[in-house]
Amino acid sequence: MSNTYTQIYIHYVFAVQNRIGLIQSGWRDELYKYMTGTVANKGHKLLQIGGMPDHVHALVSMSPKQSPSELMADVKRSSSLWINENRFVKGKFSWQEGFGAFSYGKSQITSIATYIQNQEDHHKKRTFREEYLEILKKFDVEYDERYVFKQIE
Question: Which backbone phi and psi does 127 adopt, to 5 degrees?
Fold first, then answer.
């Protein structure tokens, strides 16, 4: 076969270092646009992005040319540099190590995109920790709770 054809949808979840609510509404949309550009520059398509002051959800249609880990390293590295260069926070901004990546089929894209869009409503009812643990359990991901959330130092 001379061409590669894929349909890979990944829902990424990643948190601000120590889950501190540093992403402010005044620059959040600019951050999301910056991340969208980073994803596009790597050959992928960002379908939906959203989150809260302490974490981000991104639904990406992936190209097979880059691994999820490489994409997240690029997105987190470039966006933290951008946040720091623009001095949006006092001190140094950084993302917590690691991320969640969960695959979905085409028929599920609309519902997960809506879920990401409605993050503020979801978090009126449950914390990020509760949400994230629920996703891990839904996908039967084995985890060690000591490493899911880095403790505030």
Answer: -80, 170
- DSSP letter assigned to residue 93: -
Place of tokens 């949006």: 88
Q: Which of residues 112 and 146 earns the better pLDDT score?
A: 112
Residue 151, pLDDT > 60, answer no
For residue 19, the 8-state DSSP code is G
- Provide the β-strand partners of residue 14: 56
In angstroms, the CA 4 to CA 6 distance is 7
Residue count of the chain: 153
Q: What angle do CA 62, 64, 65 make, to 5 degrees?
A: 110
Positive or negative, the CA dihedral 35, 97, 120, 142 is positive
Q: What is the pLDDT of residue 4?
A: 86
CA 72 to chain centre: 8
